[in-house]
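# step 3/5: fold
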Amino acid sequence: GFTAPCRKPLGALLTFSPFFFVMQSRCIAHYFSLEFAVGGGKYIPTGRGLAINHTPFHEIFATYAASCMYPGVELLLLLSGLITLAPICGYALNYWALGFASIAPVSLILGPSLFNPHAFCIAEGVDDLGRFVRWLVRPAKAGGGGFDPPPPWGDFH
């Protein structure tokens, strides 16, 4: 009947798989272009523990900022500029097109946190926010540092 062909795409939308696909594609493209720019093929962990373990937000930010979050913010600013300037210039905006165009920036910004286990647990979210703020205000260390915990914001940025 009619419900069978609608069930599969609706199920994919409800599990946010388009958001994951956009985030995954951007990560692959980022690291692929980085390999061509600077070379240095090396082992990239598969991230098998990602589906089981909760990762604090400051570690997610340190990992995905350059590949996903910064381009997502750029796309969101570009889309905001389009929304702001289109009526001034006399152009009509199609809301369906804006909705679909907003999938990419939203998935790039929220995707790394959205697919983190326990992402919707309030206690984990409050703890992650506290760790993120402490990571931002922690003074920079001289001489770098390891990745566990991530270097402070001053060293990262």
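# step 4/5: annotate
Residues 3-156 form one domain.
# step 5/5: archive (pending)
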